[in-house]
Structure formats: C-alpha cells, structure tokens
Amino acid sequence: MRTLVFDGRTGAAGDMICAALIAAGADPAVLDPVRDALPVRYEVGETEKNGIRATTVDVLVDRHGAGDADSDHDHAHGHGHTHDHGHDHDHAHSHGDDHSYGHDHDHDHGHETDASRDETHAEGAGVHRSYREVVDLVESMGLPDAVESTALDAFELLGRAEASVHGIDLDETHFHEVGADDAIADVVGAALLLADLDPERVVTTPVAAGGGTVEMSHGTYPVPAPATTEVATRSDFRIVGGPVDRELLTPTGAAILGAVAEGVDAVPDLAVERAGYGAGDADFEPHPNVLRALVGDGGRAESETDRGRTVGGGLVRDDIAVLETNLDDAAPEVLGGLQETLERAGARDVTIVPTTMKKSRPGHLVKVICKPADVEAVAERLARETGTLGVRQSGASHRWIAEREFETATLRVDGADHEVTVKVASTTDGEVYDVSGEYDEAAAVAGATGLPIREVLRRAEAAVRERLADE
Q1: CA distance linking residue 328 with residue 29, whole number of Å
Q2: Short-list 378, 352, 277, CA closest to 20
Q3: Final residue before a domain boundary, out of 344, 361, 396
Q4: Which Pfam family, just one, is annotated for this protein (predicted)?
C-alpha cells in the first residue's frame, strides 16, 4: 500500500506541508488552478536547516490584484495573535498566518525584490473572507472532486474551530488571516499536491505544537492557541508540547493534516521510496525546523477511522470514552430509539441494562462508547433524549479491537443472486479468527427466498471462508 507519512517534530504550517509534498515528489505544476483563481504566485526554492537540505514554498501576491487587509476589522473581531513559528515580530496577525512561520527571506532561491517586481510576500494579504465566501471561492475553482473535498474539509475544520472558540454558528464565522489569499493558496495547494502524489494512505506522527504563550487581543494564551486546539479536538492525530517555546503548529497546518491524515504513534513499517523536507525559516538549535514527508510501500491500513495503536496480543488499541447514566422513568420507546439517535451524535456502541435503583424501583443503566472528541455531543444528545439530569464519564480510556474488513457473499437461490455482507475479524498480523454475516441483510434474503435466516448466514459465511482460504 502506497503510504505518505508526515513527521512533524517541529510542527507544521500550510507552506511547510506544501513544501514537504513537493520535496517528496509532487509536481508544482499542479498548482495552476490556484494561480488562475487568485492573484498569487508560488515560489519554490531550497534552504538548509541544521545540515538538512529542505524545500521552501513562498506565496507571493500581486499587490495590485490583492485587496487590503482591514486591520481595524481584525482587531474588532479579536484575532490579534500570530502563528509566527519562529521569527520575532509584534504578533499583529490573526489565526492561520502560516507564512509568518519564521520567514526571514534568506533562502538561496534568489527571488526578485519587491522593487524589481510588483509582488509582495503574502502574510495575510488579500481579502479576508467569511466561511461561506471561502467555500464559494473553492467551489468556483473547477478543482477535481477529491481535491475540492479535501480543501473544503480543511476549511470546515477551521470554521468549526473558530465558531467554537467564539461561540457562534459556522455560517457566521468570518475568517481573517485564514480567509486571505495566502491561506487559501496553502490549503488548496496542499490538496492539489497530495492528489498528485496519490497515496492510498496518509498518516502523521504526533505533531509538535511548541510551548510558551502567544499574545492575542483577548490576552495571553498558552500554546497551542485556542483555534489550533479546537482543530486538534476534531482531528485524528495527536499533538505534543515542545521542543521549543514557540508556536509551532498553526491552525491552517493542523486543519490540513486533520483533513487528510490519520494519527499514528510512530513512523509505520515502510519501504521508503522518497523522503522530502519542507522548511520553516527560523532556526531552532539543535532541532531542524522542517516537516518531513516519507513516501513508500507500507503495511495495510486499519479498516476503521477510529484506528488505534497496535500492541502485543494481536488487537488494536482504540482510544475511547465511556458515558453512563441511570434512568428510572424512561419510556420504552425512548430507550428503543437511543441506539439510532446516539449513533448520529457519534456513539460507537450503546448498551441498556435493566437494574434496580433507589427504593427498589426498576430502572435502566445506559452505557455509551464514543470517541473522546465526541463526548460533549453524545452526552448532550443523551441528556436531551432521556431527560437525565447528569451523565458521568467512567474511567475507561481505551478498548482492544480487532482489525475489521467487510466482504460480500453472493448466494444463488432458485436462479437469482442475493448479496450478504460478511464481517471478517482478524489480528494485526492478518490471522482471521471470526467470520460473521450481517443479520439484517441475511433476514432480507431469507424473506425473499424462504430460506431460514441461519441457513442464509451459514452459506454466506462459508462462501467468504472458502474465498479467504484460496487467497
């Protein structure tokens, strides 16, 4: 399986992601749709970080083609901090200023000065847009479906993060630096470059967020800043502090990774074909300020989006949260519908256990398994559906789950073909230990053919076992 691995030991920003993808083999020529839609130009060059040759990407904006950033409007909305990622200035930017990730403009690619061409380094240049305006702009670019979907996923992560931080609805969100031309160029550019590499799987090791504090118009906040933190809660990858007291992970960088990558604890088994480094401009002795990208043939991916860490025993560690509440007055109809309603909120499993409550009254214990990022939504839905006055979170932090794949068994009965989905459970080394047909589909086939449900299940499972034995 062709796998792309991001290794963000000194963080990630939008321009660093683009640079790492180009260094790993993506063709910069695929960035043309962005250049056609925005008054920007990508300048690709090289630099050296602690002895490592790395690729750089700068987004330059035509000063006559870009609108002026409304700084008064920015301050009124309270977006006063910068994601400088390594150079010293007055923290005058807003969320997502990826190009302030230490740009000293000392690269050896020799771009022309502003005096010799009518361009300027982007850093938030151009119109600052609302979330809906950004979506409309991306949809107007004529991008391939997969590229457009990736870019919109990243902007939705950013939009929901901003909405959560400021307590507003998604459609009311107004992007400042994140909605400027350079940030859009980073997000859409990364989506185009990723599509050009065309990996089957994308993963990222834990990403360094940095440390210390960051100044915002609302005050001094610890790193990672609120928007970055909110993006991380909605993403699969993990963040770690350090290795320096600077802000290393920008909201835009986090959103791109959140839209495309699953989190892993370490670089997986990989037959490396290409290795590339995308540079930020600051120097962090002794840490090379680069985002590494590895491309190669790797192991098969886990079959669910809630992938965990593989350990001894042949199962996968899956991080979860367990919510519980006791009910003594819930109607049977409400209890019967909890599985469906809570699943829509993010629950992975719902169990209802009859129990005896105070004064020997009959009641029910409701236990819900969900991902940590979905706890708040699931707890709220549980309270609204049942009227419970409290939901507690138990101490369980993970579970051990099998690798799961789904096969389709085709049964021929009286000259007609019928399909039943069969779930195949295996250990991490590929040893199959259970094959189970999906009951609802088997029941439908049984109703159509007159066969007993258990016979349909037996035939479907036998067909899949036979197929697996032949592989």
Answers
A1: 64
A2: 277
A3: 396
A4: Ni_insertion
Range of the domain at 442: 402-470
Whether residue 452 lies inside any domain: the answer is yes
State how far the Cα of 234 lies from the Cα of 79, in Å rounded to an integer.
21
Say if residue 269 is in the same domain as residue 415: no
pLDDT of res. 108: 37
CB-based contact 26:268 (threshold 8 Å): no
Do β-strands 398-401 and 347-356 pair in parallel, antiparallel, or remain unpaired? unpaired
3-state secondary structure of 263: strand
State how far the alpha carbon of 188 is from the alpha carbons of 6, 35, 183, 184, in Å.
18, 11, 9, 6
Question: What's the N-to-C CA distance of the chain in angstroms?
Answer: 17
CA 187/CA 250 separation, integer angstroms: 12
Query: Amino acid identity of 225?
Result: A
Same domain, 72 and 33: yes
Same domain, 92 and 134: yes
Q: Taking each helix axis as running N to C, give the angle between helix 439-449 and helix 453-470, from 0 to 180 degrees, rounded to the nearest 10.
A: 120
pLDDT in tens, 280-296: 878 888 899 999 999 99
Q: Which residues of 277-299 are buried (b: 16+ CB within 10 A; e: fewer)?
A: bbbbbbebeebbbbbbbbbbebe
Top-confidence residue, 353 or 180? 353
Please report which residue ranges of 198-331 form alpha helices under DSSP H. 226-233, 251-260
What digits encode the pLDDT tens for the residues 371-393? Answer: 888 888 999 999 999 989 899 98
Which pTM does this prediction carry?
0.57
User: What CA–CA distances, in Å, run from 334 to 322, 329, 375?
Assistant: 20, 10, 20
Find the mean pLDDT for residues 436-455: 94
Nearest to 364 by CA among 394, 324, 393: 324
Q: Supply the mean pLDDT for the chain.
A: 82
